[in-house]
Amino acid sequence: SIGEGCSLMPGAHVAGSVHLGHHVLVGSGANILNSLHVGANARIGAGAVVTRPVAAGATVVGVPARELHSK
Fold this sequence. Notes:
Layout: E1 7-8, E2 13-14, E3 19-20, E4 25-26, E5 31-32, E6 37-38, E7 43-44, E8 49-50, E9 58-61, E10 66-70
Parallel strand pairs: 1-4, 2-5, 3-6, 4-7, 5-8, 7-9
Antiparallel strand pairs: 9-10
């Protein structure tokens, strides 16, 4: 499911049973895999490959995605 106010940039892919919280930003070319939860106000960097849940307010980047910081 996709929460209110989410932004998926061009080329972003969501596979499986993924829940995006409210106001999540998914960068260009990012891939969200498996059945996982992305918390509200999280940011996923361009080209990131997300294989684990993302905490609310977190910023994740890289392959595989790792947390840079959290609000």
